[in-house]
Amino acid sequence: MDHQTPVDPALATALAQARVLVATAASTANQQGVADGPLAAIDRILAGLPAASAPASSDGRTPPSLSPQELEARLRASEAMLVQREGELEAARAELRSQQEELEDLYTEIQAEQERAVFMAEASALLASSLDTATTLRSVAQLAVPQVADWCIVHVVEDDGTVRQLTMVHADPQKANLLGELQHRFSREFFPILPAAEVIRTGEAQLLQEIPDSLLADAVQDGEHLRLLRALGPTSAMGVPLVARGRTVGAITLARTEAGKHYATRDLLLAEELARRAAVAIDNARLYSAAVEADRRKDEFLAMLSHELRNPLAAISTALHVLRTRSANDQVRTRALSVVARQVEHQTRLVNDLMDVSRLTQGKIELRKEPVDLTLVAARAAETATPLIEQRRHGFSLALASQPLCVEGDAARLEQVVVNLLTNAAKYTERGGRIWLEAARDGDHALLRVRDTGAGIPPAMLARVFDLFVQAERTLDRSQGGLGIGLTLVRSLVEMHGGTVRAFSDGADQGSEFVLRLPLAGSEGPKASPGMTTHGCGPTGACVLLVEDNVDARETLRDLLELWGYGVEVAVDGRRGLEAALALGPDAALVDIGLPGLDGYEVARRIRAAEAADSGNQKPIYLIALTGYGQPEDRRRALEAGFNTHLVKPVNAEELARLLQEVAR
Fold first, then answer.
1. Is the N-terminal amide bond of 146 cis, ω within 30° of 0?
2. 500 φ, ψ (degrees, to nearest 5)
3. Number of domains comprising the chain
4. What pLDDT score does 464 carry?
5. Entry pTM
6. 402 with 547, same domain?
7. Helix H or strand E encompassing 334
8. Are residues 511 and 549 in the same domain?
9. Chain center to CA of 431
10. Where among 519, 543, 578 does a domain terminate?
11. Nearest residue to 480 via CA among 515, 452, 446
């Protein structure tokens, strides 16, 4: 028989509410994935409490009843446990929110890293796409805007050390015009809070995370400068140097103008990596350009060497043919021997200079130093160079210090230096010019100056004039001669003596000055040119016009032609040669290509044009090109200009004789 214990109605209601709360908490815990062990324990406690009527046990005994105080205590314990569980649940929710925020931040950072990686990949591709520095850096600046900056400016360091703005790019075309106005009105440092020159000077990156208006106001030049900068609106900026092989070659300035966007350290790291890659690209481009230039200079040097060797050989070869000719009289033979001697001396000097350059590049030149009076060295050098100066009819002034200028040096090498400078001045000064040589004391140094009124040096050449094989632009006549090694020898020998040499010029046709400094011992008119000479037709009845500006080559070849029985008319430049050809109508004309005034190509073209205009009333002149330039391209140009044949110096006498015999028939 079941027995029920009566329960207080209020208590029954409380128990029912407690059970509902426990069930709700358990359900919430399951949804949140939180263990519900404590709730299960509470539920078991509540399950043990009497209901409205409790059944008797199987043995017929009634379960023990709880007093109201015990029930209240148990309820309070249950409520405390519920409160604790609510707190744990709230903490779990907070942890979940924090982890979600961290995941979102991590995802954002991953996206940013991916964007930076893509940007660097694109930048690397651009940097590798061209060996032209300017093109490459402009492309990189355009890539940086707007991905990593709202505007970007790139500066480069030129070979002479000056800083030049290469490009500037702005995301907003109107603001780009503003950048241009700032640059035009306030020079290169129109952005004074982050000057590129300072970044280049220090070689260190700079970061301005925020740019308050007060910073702009303190740095500007005037109110208008401030107004324009405010209109530009920079909010953050950074400048990074372009450094390659320990040398700063430029700088990149990046800036943000959008409110709320500011550069951070990671942005600076990205900019530094971009600058590092750009600097390597610039260095590679410059090395490539230097290699191409060196190759070009080598080819030019070989061509000029060929020319400089062939001209003397042509004179020597012709002189030998004159000497072999039995009909040559003593005067002709003496003149031919003089030509040989002169040209052998010229060749000897040329070979000696080449050997000196070779020894210098290998570090094999040794100086025999002793106390030397530089005034005596200058006097001997002037004496050596006088024949060339007089040959070109220059005025020459020599001013030497009244007291000895004693230096520790190799007298022969120092004389070589001064002779090279004087020879250079004589060759690059038009006939009738002036040359000055001065030696004086300047503090604890001896100062030597060689000044002329000659061709001058273009500004772009001043920094390179002492480099090996470097020469200014030449015309085909190469009236100055030389291989571009004399000044290299000068600089190297002077530096071996502990001195310096510098070149000065106001530009083309403004003359030049070379200033040599050595430590003292104990201390650290009108151009005159010969005209045309006429000798009439010879025994063969054929007349030959010889147009050649080289004196020895002209005289020896004229002698050989006369010995062969031809009448020879001689002209010393292109214009006189053209006049003689049109006036006299020779059977053949031997025309040097490298002539002053009109070159040989132009002489041939004008002769052929005049013959065409004459409608064939006169027999065409057989034109023979004589030149030290023997490349296939040179032959092609000669034939296109109107020459019948092209002979390379030194001319083969048998071949020339055969050609003239065919013409004379």
1. yes
2. -135, 155
3. 4
4. 77
5. 0.48
6. no
7. helix 330-361
8. no
9. 37
10. 519
11. 452
* Helical segments of 455-599, H only: 459-462, 486-496, 551-563, 574-584
Contact 641, 605 (CB under 8 A): yes
How far is Cα 575 from Cα 562, in angstroms, rounded to an integer? 24
> What angle do the packed helices 9-32 and 68-128 form, to 10 degrees?
20
- Measured distance CA(196)–CA(160) in Å, rounded: 17
- Cβ contact 171:150 at 8 Å: yes
Q: Cα torsion for 188, 194, 196, 201, to the nearest 10°?
A: 130
Cα 299 to Cα 352, 361, 428, 483, 630: the distances in Å are 21, 19, 22, 12, 14
**Is the per-residue pLDDT at 646 higher than 90?**
yes
Q: What is the DSSP string of 291-330?
A: HHHHHHHHHHHHHHHHHHHHHHHHHHHHHHHHHH-TT--H
What confidence tier does 531 reach under pLDDT thresholds 50, 70, 90?
A: very low
Residue where a domain stops, chosen among 269, 289, 309: 289
| Structural domain for 285, as ranges | 122-289
What pLDDT does 2 receive? 47
Residues facing residue 241 across a β-bridge = 251
The label of the residue with tokens 């530089």 reads 374
How many secondary structure helices (H) and strands (E) does the chain include? 19, 18
Query: Do both 256 and 137 map to the same domain?
Result: yes
Query: How many residues are listed for the chain in this entry?
Result: 665
- Structure confidence by residue, pLDDT tens digits, 570-592: 988 888 899 889 888 899 999 99
Q: What does 91-136 look like in DSSP terms, one character per residue? A: HHHHHHHHHHHHHHHHHHHHHHHHHHHHHHHHHHHHHHS-S-HHHH
Q: Are residues 141 and 86 in the same domain?
A: no
The order of strands in the sheet holding 543-547 is 533-534, 567-571, 543-547, 588-592, 622-627, 645-648
| Structure token pair of residue 604 | 């041939």
What stretches of 505-651 adopt beta strand conformation (E)? 512-519, 533-534, 543-547, 567-571, 588-592, 622-627, 645-648
Amino acid identity of residue 198, one-letter, is E
Report the pLDDT value the prediction gives residue 422, as an integer from 0 to 100. Answer: 93
**CATH code for the domain in which residue 574 is found:** 3.40.50.2300
Rounded Cα distance, 410 and 417, in Å = 11
Helix (H, G, I), strand (E, B) or coil at 156: strand
CA atoms within 13 A on the CB side of 346: 22
pLDDT in tens, 264-285: 988 898 889 888 888 888 888 8
| Cα 547 to Cα 108: distance, rounded to the nearest angstrom | 82
Q: Please state, in angstroms and rounded to a whole number, the distance separating the CA atoms of residues 488 and 297.
A: 14
Q: 234-237 — which CB contacts under 8 Å span 24+ positions?
A: 234/191, 235/210, 235/211, 235/259, 235/260, 235/261, 235/262, 236/208, 236/209, 236/210, 236/211, 236/261, 236/262, 236/263, 237/191, 237/193, 237/194, 237/208, 237/211, 237/263
Question: Nearest-CA neighbor of 140 among 126, 128, 150?
Answer: 126
Whether 138 and 279 map to the same domain: the answer is yes
> Helix/strand/coil (H, E, C) string of 483-512?
CCCHHHHHHHHHHHCCCEEEEECCCCCCCE
Instruction: Give me the residue label for tokens 């210090």.
Output: 401
In sequence order, the 6+-apart residues with CB closer than 8 A to the CB of 430 are 454, 455, 527
Q: How far apart are CA 537 and CA 587, in angstroms?
A: 10
Tell me what percent of the chain is helix, strand and coil, each rounded to the nearest 5.
Answer: 55, 15, 30
Element (H, E) at 152: strand 151-157
